[in-house]
Amino acid sequence: xxxxxxxxxxxxxxxxxxxxxxxxxxxxxxxxxxxxxxxxxxxxxxxxxxxxxxxxxxxxxxxxxxxxxxxxxxxxxxxxxxxxxxxxxxxxxxxxxxxxxxxxxxxxxxxxxxxxxxxxxxxxxxxxxxxxxxxxxxxxxxxxxxxxxxxxxxxxxxxxxxxxxxxxxxxxxxxxxxxxxxxxxxxxxxxxxxxxxxxxxxxxxxxxxxxxxxxxxxxxxxxxxxxxxxxxxxxxxxxxxxxxxxxxxxxxxxxxxxxxxxxxxxxxxxxxxxxxxxxxxxxxxxxxxxxxxx
Amino acid sequence: xxxxxxxxxxxxxxxxxxxxxxxxxxxxxxxxxxxxxxxxxxxxxxxxxxxxxxxxxxxxxxxxxxxxxxxxxxxxxxxxxxxxxxxxxxxxxxxxxxxxxxxxxxxxxxxxxxxxxxxxxxxxxxxxxxxxxxxxxxxxxxxxxxxxxxxxxxxxxxxxxxxxxxxxxxxxxxxxxxxxxxxxxxxxxxxxxxxxxxxxxxxxxxxxxxxxxxxxxxxxxxxxxxxxxxxxxxxxxxxxxxxxxxxxxxxxxxxxxxxxxxxxxxxxxxxxxxxxxxxxxxxxxxxxxxxxx
Lengths: 294, 293
Description:
The structure holds two protein chains of two kinds.
Chain A: H1 2-5, H2 18-49, H3 54-59, H4 72-80, H5 83-113, H6 120-132, H7 139-148, H8 156-179, H9 183-191, H10 196-207, H11 209-224, H12 228-233, H13 242-253, H14 258-289
Helix pairs in contact in A: 2-14, 4-14, 5-8, 5-11, 5-13, 6-8, 8-11, 9-10, 11-14, 13-14
Chain B: H1 2-5, H2 8-36, E1 39-42, E2 46-49, H3 53-60, H4 62-97, H5 102-113, H6 116-126, H7 135-142, H8 154-181, H9 186-194, H10 199-226, H11 231-236, H12 248-257, H13 262-290
Antiparallel strand pairs in B: 1-2
Helix pairs in contact in B: 3-13, 4-8, 4-10, 5-8, 8-10, 9-10, 10-13, 12-13
C-alpha cells in the first residue's frame, strides 16, 4: 500500500514508523557531529589559544577559554613574526608566477591541442614527464646556476622555478579543456581575416576563462604552500615567504611565546579561510581536477 | 582549411616560450643532476669524478635503507587512510546526506587548502607533552590514561604524522571519490533496491565493484603525492627524533644542504625520481582504463 502512496521514500516496511525512522538517522547524525568536531575543533582550539597569555597557557587546560583575552598577541605576532614582510614576499612571488603560468600554459595547450602539426603527441608526452619529477631532482643544478649568475638573494629564483614547475600540469589541463572545443570554431574565426594568433587571443582564451581560473587556483595553492623551494632559495630573513617565516618564527619563539605563535598560525590560516569562503566550490572542483599532482 | 591551424610561425610563438622555460628549468637540471650522480663534491669546493661510488654507497647506506622504508611505510599507510576514509566520506555524502551534503563536504575539505606549515605547527601543539600537555594528552589523562610523549619517540611521531596527513586530505579524497560515485547510473541502484536489496548487499554487489576504478585511481594519486612527502615531516618533526622519521626527500635535502654533498644528494634524488616514474606509469595505465583524467 505504501508503495502506491510514497513509492520513493519508504521502500522498507520498518521505516514506516516515524520513531524507527528517527532512530535510524541517529548513527548518521553522530557521524556528522564527529566529523564537524574533528575538522573544526582543532581550528577553534587554535583560535582560543592564540588569545591566551603565557601563564594562562601553562596553568590552565588548553581547552579552557582565555582568562584575559590577549588581542595584543596578534600585534606581536605580526611584528616579531615579520609577517608583513613574509606575506608581501609570498604575494610578490605568487602573482607573477601565476600570470606567467596561465599565459604560457594556455598558449602551449592551444598549440598542442588545437593546432595541427607533426610530433605534437611526442611534445605533449615530453611536457607531461615534468609532472612526476620531484623537486629534489632539479634543485641542485638550479641552485648552482642561480648562485653563479647572482640571482640568489632575490625572489627571482622562486618566480622562475614556480613558473616552470607549474607549466606541465597547466599545459596538460588546458589541452584537455581545448579538446572540448571543436576546431571549426577557430577556423571560422580566421575566415573573417583574423590570424590564428588573434583567434587564440580573442576567441580561444575567452572560451576557456573558467578553466583558466581552475588552473590558477590549483597553482595558487601549490605555490603559496610550497616549502622546499622556498627553504632553499628564500632562506635569508628578508626573502622569507610566509611558510618559511612561520617555521622560523616557531623555531625561534615557539617554545616560549605560545600566544603569538598561535596568533601567527591563525593569521596564516585566516587569509586562506577568507579566500575559501568565497571560492569553495571552485576550489574543491579545481583541486580535484588537478589531483594528478599529489 | 587546415593550413591556418598548421601555421608554423604561430605554433612557435604559442608553444616556444613555455617549452623553453620548461626545458631550461626542468629537463636540463634533470640531466645535469643525473650527471652529478657520478661526481663527489659541491660547487664551492669543486667536483671530483667518483664513478659508481655514489651508487655503491646508496645500496649500503643504512640511512638510505631506513629513509626508503620510512617513505614506503608512510606512503602506503597514509594512502590507505586517505582512500578508505575518503571513500567513507563519499558514501556518506552520496547515500546519507544526499542533496544536503554540500555544507559538510565544504567544511571537511577546508584543511586541504591550509598551509602545511601552519597545520604542522598546530599538530605540534595538539600532541605536545612538555612543558605542559596539549589537547590530545589532556583528553587521554581525563579518561584515566597517561599522557604520551608523542613527538619524543619515532614510533609515536610516525603515528602523529600519519594522523595529520590523513586528517588534512581525507576531505579531498572524499570529494574526488564522491565525483566518481556520481557516475554510477542511478537506475542500477534503484532497480536493485526495488528488488529488495538491503544496503549491505547493495553495497557489496553493486556500489563497491562499480567504485573500484575511482578507488584505484585515487590510491595512485595518493601514493604519487605521499611518496614525495617533505613539508609535513620537515615542519612537524624535522625528521626526528634522531633520524626516525626521515623520508628520502628530507635525507636528500640534508645530504645536499647540510653535508654539502651534491653528488650523493643527486643519487638519492635519482632513486626518488625512479620511484615516482614507476608510480606515474601505473597512474597513466589506470587512467586510460577509466578516463578519470
